[in-house]
Q: What sequence folds into this?
């Protein structure tokens, strides 16, 4: 019997997100997956703005930007009344002022590549592939002992045949990206057939909608199993449809078609496999669906434009299940991602929710496993992510209802007037705009908790405790380079105190900074192991509002200008919200974005996931102290 | 005895640049290097704007942007007259309107990584490491037979000891980037000691300043060996010098110090190892230089600021040699990069010249080896690159003279007045501005040749035949995405005809386009093997000046809208010079940048290296035909 601090079951995006944090915190974790290789094609493909911001903080957003399709607008098509189709509207994304990213589209296979590379960059943690759990037991009596291993799991190593999913008929051969080639070969940690019993402190089930872990935990998966069958396919379309390289939808006489532009020349198409008037078709057997049925349905909806394809990378037929577990854990065993919630893939949120679930749980688990924070902070995983999953399901329902309503009208033989059609499109566009911040992940509705202090917001009127810190382009004081905050606020496991130091040319701001520097040093010492660097648990950064050229780094106190005997002064902690002559995007307006007075500033605490945990006046060291006392164990000298 | 189409000796940046083209054209080439591994640290580090543009066309500029330091300004420091130093000026780069890139700084080791990855992405060509040439012979009688192998080279495989350079005393252990780890292990194609005789059609000597190839060819290396000894080191400085994270220079009482900011927390320092009054020191032995001597010199010059370091990645002592070969080839054996020219590393041009040499020769060689073009086009390698090497040496001399003058004045005991100092700094700044376009590689002075037609420029007043095509941000017609021309004009081996189609909403422009489409199709057929796609030798792209939304892709003729039976329509060939609502950098002003009338447009031919080969009126198919007739062999039907 071997021991593991924690065991992650499933190495999709959510499992890899948890593993990312284990690597960052240096936790001796294991991660298994039943498939013999990583995923290469198909499945999820939509990355929302907030997920890309997180990827930036993890060091690989640029890889998505290089390879993916960037979506900034959506096209609507409808019948033109003369037997044809016409473009009836364009919905533009409106978030470009507040984030470096809009939605990007790229196959899940590449996202797994980037996550794997990020994990390998900082640790020796590697996915054990072709391994399944066979039994799971839990000793509740050990639950409250942090040193105990209450979980026992039996694992079995699968053969290549067992670990290889059935090929999908009609798909073309796969030509992997050069850096994915090594992963085509199946590798095993143990010999095939090996049965291993391991004990773990924590177990994280990231094993998808049909989660083995969830079944072992006897957690129900509640909700509706909608009967409408959809087809989804990633193809290289042969078509004269004018907007085939724009994300777009057609609401035609034969049904609804959703087209999502992808990397290279790929387009993903979502198509209902029945005519609208066959909405509830009990007799329809999903297993009888073929790729040609999808092809024919798209042809019919897209007519009079041509449609066909010879290259198909992936396809599936699915029935939308809108389901949610009533709880996300049983003791120290947690569920993450699709194991907790499923909804329609068409809203482009699945992979984002899964990754953000994994990231949300991962850093908290890391802090607990390192003995730095109380296990009670893990409760916020449920309070933050479960309510959000419910909101996503509501959002999905609202979107779905537009299509459903239309289908019902048709089913009932109602003639839908032009006016009604116009109203529905207007309603859809309105819903799009209303929901954009939510869909892009810019609002998350995290509630008050030990990790989120909801107090006065007067000093930073556009910041919300619990929400993400709005991204801005600011300049490094030492070298003047403009960086997005998403990049400089790295996902490296640390909390951050941001001293929005205001106009540091003023004597009163300088005095204030000096005074709080000493007090913050004392605060950091209380929570940082004495053998570690003072900024290893909580890092203090300053972002002032004076021009880079008018102050010097040496004007700043030691807390943001630490000295290392090997590496000299730290140049990464002082930043300026000012214009940059060679980058027009860098306008020096971050303070306005955050709603902070340029003269006197404010203080903000960011959690390791860059959500605002606390905010107060620049000099409110007492307040920030109280916040951290609620999270961290004081170190013993 | 084995045969090889061509043999590249040396796998530094210039050799890899040649190999890049061999991979693109699918040439069965070999590349050897005497070192047992790639380079990881030290050596060159400066990448000029034009080199980064080329990297963008090769698919990896984003990796440099992610890892490197971006230089946009330079700081000048001088004595303050009170025993200290003061910042006396800042020189800002001014090229940001005409290129996506300014200078970037990153170790040559990473550049080699990116080049190797690009080569591996399209071919199985791999560097044979730990291999040297032992003898070389050339049969001139075979020179004019394209099928002959006039070159015979004997190669020997070295042992690990032979192929490992001596360690540099005082440097810290190397922690490779994750993707460089595999390259730390020495691998051999053949057993150690194997002697192999190979015959080659062409030989490319990319083996540096001490080129073995150059010696075999008996080509002299002419020029001065300057006696001044410099030290160079890549360190993590421990200093309170305020501009340590800006590229900067100090002209202090004890000499000149040049500081180049680098990736991470590294700074490269160039320091003269003698006081100025010891300029010609015959007794000074370079082999006696130690890292501590460099440290002490920098300490002295940087005083009263502190300076020290504990981490040194690389260092060297060198004497500037300003040398040039009188010729770049002997028959089919060519020299490239430092084997042709050496100058001071301080001007930050070495790696750029070497890479651009290799790229310049490589595509021409590719076309010749594929039998598509006459070997006479190889003569333009000499006419284009040799004159430029001479200009770089002149530029180096001009820069060097500023320091030399100062040193001389001091040596002669002249008191340099404040006014004289001010004048010299002003002169240096003026020289910087004057030379910026040259130094950044935006002007190259390529002469008229079969590859460069110098005719009327009335239709594109800001374009110059022979020069690079100025980079602009334009939008794809099919999906509206903004792309820099440097990215969309890929270095894939093809010539390109750019139809700057003007305002295609106008009927006269539409008629003109239709007419030339058919004639250009005929032209392409003459030079494209019948079994290949029509755009495989020369690609036609259109860049029109109408807004994306006001025209449809289907408005364009077949030459820029090709149909493939497997992949459907080609969406990569029609572009619009218009504004983009989500990208403020994309202003729709490319026609103005190129000096082209927005209504009636122009036609431009770009060579595979994106230099302008020909330009004329939009309808001038006769002119463009004549240009290509001078380069390509007509294919036999």
A:
């Amino acid at each position: 019997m071997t021991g593991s601090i924690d065991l992650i079951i499933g190495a999709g995006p959510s499992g890899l997100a948890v593993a990312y944090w284990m690597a960052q915190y240096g936790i001796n974790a294991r991660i298994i997956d039943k498939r013999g290789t990583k995923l290469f094609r198909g499945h999820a493909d939509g990355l929302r703005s907030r997920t890309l911001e997180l990827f930036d903080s993890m060091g690989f957003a640029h890889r998505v930007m290089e390879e993916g399709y960037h979506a900034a607008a959506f096209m609507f098509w409808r019948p033109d009344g003369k037997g044809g189709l016409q473009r009836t509207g364009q919905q533009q994304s409106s978030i470009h002022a507040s984030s470096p990213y809009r939605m990007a589209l790229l196959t899940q296979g590449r996202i797994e590549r980037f996550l794997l590379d990020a994990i390998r960059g900082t640790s020796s943690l590697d996915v054990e592939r072709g391994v399944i759990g066979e039994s799971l037991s839990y000793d509740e009596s050990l639950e409250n002992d942090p040193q105990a291993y209450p979980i026992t799991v039996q694992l079995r190593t699968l053969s290549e045949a067992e670990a290889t999913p059935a090929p999908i008929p009609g798909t073309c051969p796969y030509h992997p990206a050069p850096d994915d080639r090594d992963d085509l070969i199946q590798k095993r940690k143990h010999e095939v057939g090996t049965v291993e019993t391991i004990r773990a402190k924590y177990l994280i089930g990231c094993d998808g909608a049909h989660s083995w872990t969830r079944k072992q935990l006897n957690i129900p998966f509640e909700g509706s199993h909608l009967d409408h069958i959809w087809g989804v396919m990633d193809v290289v379309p042969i078509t004269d449809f004018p907007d085939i390289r724009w994300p777009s939808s057609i609401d035609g006489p034969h049904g609804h078609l959703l087209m999502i532009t992808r990397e290279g020349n790929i387009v993903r198409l979502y198509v209902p496999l029945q005519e609208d008037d066959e909405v509830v078709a009990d007799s329809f057997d999903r297993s009888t669906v073929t790729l040609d049925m999808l092809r024919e349905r798209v042809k019919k909806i897209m007519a009079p434009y041509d449609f066909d394809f010879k290259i198909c990378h992936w396809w599936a037929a699915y029935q939308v299940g809108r389901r949610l577990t009533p709880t996300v854990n049983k003791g120290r065993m947690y569920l993450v991602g699709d194991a907790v919630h499923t909804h329609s893939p068409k809203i482009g949120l699945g992979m984002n929710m899964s990754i953000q679930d994994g990231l949300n749980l991962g850093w908290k688990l890391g802090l607990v496993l390192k003995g730095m924070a109380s296990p009670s902070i893990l409760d916020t995983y449920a309070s933050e992510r479960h309510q959000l999953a419910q909101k996503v399901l509501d959002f999905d329902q609202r979107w779905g209802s537009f299509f459903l309503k239309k289908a019902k009208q048709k089913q009932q033989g109602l003639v839908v007037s032009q006016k009604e059609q116009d109203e529905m499109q207007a309603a859809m566009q309105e819903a799009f705009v209303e929901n954009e911040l939510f869909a892009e992940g810019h609002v998350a509705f995290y509630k008050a908790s030990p990790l989120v202090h909801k107090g006065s917001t007067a000093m930073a009127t556009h910041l919300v405790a619990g929400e993400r810190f709005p991204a801005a382009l600011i300049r490094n004081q030492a070298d003047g380079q403009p960086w997005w905050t998403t990049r400089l606020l790295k996902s490296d496991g640390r909390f951050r105190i941001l001293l929005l130091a205001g106009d540091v040319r003023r004597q009163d701001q300088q005095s204030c900074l000096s005074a709080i520097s000493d007090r913050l040093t004392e605060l950091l010492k209380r929570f940082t192991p004495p053998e570690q660097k003072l900024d290893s648990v909580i890092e203090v950064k300053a972002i002032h509002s004076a021009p880079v050229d008018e102050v010097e780094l040496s004007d700043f106190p030691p807390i943001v200008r630490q000295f290392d005997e090997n590496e000299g002064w730290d140049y990464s902690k002082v930043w300026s919200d000012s214009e940059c002559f060679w980058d027009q995007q860098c306008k020096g307006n971050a303070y306005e974005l955050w709603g902070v007075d340029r003269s006197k500033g404010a203080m903000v605490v960011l959690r390791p996931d860059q959500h605002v945990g606390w905010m107060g006046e620049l000099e409110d060291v007492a307040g920030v102290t109280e916040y951290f006392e609620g999270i961290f164990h004081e170190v013993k000298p």
Observations:
- Chain B has a mean pLDDT of 93.
- The domain at 473-629 of chain B is CATH 3.40.30.20 (Glutaredoxin).
- Chain B is about 30% helix and 25% strand.
- The first helix of chain B runs from residue 13 to 25.
